[in-house]
Write a structure and sequence with these properties.
The protein has 390 residues and is an alpha+beta fold. The chain has 4 helices and 22 strands. The protein has 3 domains: 97 residues, conserved putative lor/sdh protein from methanococcus maripaludis s2 fold; 104 residues, Efflux pump adaptor protein, beta barrel domain (Elongation Factor Tu (Ef-tu), domain 3), CATH 2.40.30.170; 141 residues, OB fold (Dihydrolipoamide Acetyltransferase, E2P), CATH 2.40.50. The strands form 4 sheets. Strands 2-9-13-12-11-14 form a 6-stranded antiparallel beta barrel. The chain has a 4-stranded mixed β-sheet with strand order 20-1-21-22.
Length: 390
């Protein structure tokens, strides 16, 4: 039993020595500092590319309705095709309206004949009245008849004009240029001017085309505040802000547009403000109702400090980053973030200054106050090593 006891005592001694060596190694590592990568932030002007969900909308959209009733004889266009303003789209049976026009013209001729007769009577009776041959009543009756027949001529003339309009309405033309929808009434249908029975088709003007999007109230206020503080610049010097459209396959529409309208009111339900951009669309590649991504360009964020999105952590007091103090230890910097950049970075509005070292690696291993050795990634030819004992 004695030899076994000696063996066990020896093993325990070896384990204790190994543990002490490991603790000494960790203590030495802690003293030397954890190796991390850091970024030296720099205040510089950067372009702001603001991206929003958007939807295309026709520049103009018009319903083509029948203005007279009748049998729809013919459709003169192909559904979904492009038409120009004034092109003939539909033909309604004109026969009843030709008859109505002939009747109106006959009534006009009759009224004009009666008017001429009344004029002759008036000339004769007015002469006789001056000669005191007829009474004053006869003169008044003749003048009244003249006035009534003159009014009848005007009524008959208006009826002729209305009949001509109705006959003209049997040929339905395009009120605007654009793309036609499906027909709502097929050939042979009885058309009415009331309700949906009078709707024939719709035309949407797609060149140019609108792109509608919403921006949050806070974002617009932030832009306004920064502009008031001189933190935002517009190289276009007050001209319209440039807009681009990103398609569903992440490719960009080749033609640029401009922001041409900002709604003066805020949507109470969503807290957003509606904006509108207009784009040239000569080939019709953008279609009304199409979902898009709108990128708003043309603004410069002056003296911006940008950190990678992965370097930003969330704490009880909001977003923060780990930075390296002058003593080479880890320090928590509470920040206020602004817009994002195309390079997946956050613009820091408050909490950092030009030249600060922000840790971008091993974020789950570090804690406040520990010493670190930093490799500055945006200064590849230079390595700065910090030691808490220095």
């Amino acid at each position: 039993m004695q030899p076994n006891k000696k063996i066990m005592t020896g093993l325990l001694s070896i384990l204790l020595i190994t543990g002490c060596l490991e603790n000494d190694k960790n203590a030495t590592k802690e003293t030397e500092g954890l190796k991390v990568q850091a970024l030296r932030v720099e205040a510089k002007d950067i372009p702001l590319d603001l991206e929003y969900s958007a939807r295309a909308q026709g520049y103009k959209q018009t319903q083509v309705r029948a203005q007279v009733g009748g049998i729809l004889l013919k459709r003169h266009y192909k559904e979904g095709s492009r038409v120009n303003a004034g092109d003939v789209l539909f033909e309604i049976d004109p026969a009843p309206y030709k008859v109505a026009l002939s009747q109106a013209k006959a009534h006009l001729a009759e009224a004009e004949a009666e008017y001429q007769s009344a004029q002759s009577d008036w000339k004769r009776i007015s002469t006789l009245y001056k000669q005191k041959v007829v009474s004053e009543k006869s003169r008044d009756d003749a003048q009244s008849a003249l006035n009534m027949t003159k009014a009848a001529v005007q009524v008959a003339q208006a009826q002729v004009e209305k009949a001509e309009l109705d006959l003209g309405y049997t040929t339905v033309t395009a009120p605007i240029s654009g793309i036609t929808s499906l027909e709502d009434q097929s050939e042979g249908s009885l058309i009415s001017v009331n309700g949906d029975a009078g709707l024939l088709t719709s035309i949407t003007q797609v060149d140019p085309i609108y792109v509608i999007f919403n921006a949050s109230e806070s974002e617009i206020l932030s832009l306004t505040t920064m502009n008031d503080k001189g933190m935002i610049a517009n190289p276009a010097k007050g001209k319209a802000i440039t807009a681009k459209v990103k398609l569903s396959n992440d490719s960009y529409y080749p033609l640029n547009g401009k922001i041409n309208f900002i709604n003066p009111t805020i949507d109470e339900n969503t807290g957003t403000i509606k904006l509108r951009a207009v784009f040239p669309n000569p080939e019709g590649r953008l279609r009304p109702g199409q979902f898009l991504r709108l990128v708003m360009e043309g603004l410069i964020r002056k003296d911006a400090i940008v950190v990678p999105e992965d370097a930003v952590m969330q704490g009880a007091k909001g977003p923060f980053v780990y930075k390296i103090s002058d003593k080479g230890t880890v320090e928590i910097a509470n920040i206020k973030t602004g817009f994002t950049t195309q390079e997946e970075g956050w613009v820091v509005d408050e909490g950092l200054k030009d030249g600060d070292l922000v840790i971008i690696s091993d974020l789950m291993k570090i804690r406040q106050g520990i010493p670190v050795k930093a490799e500055i990634v945006n200064e590849p030819k230079k390595e700065e090593i910090f030691d808490a004992d220095v």
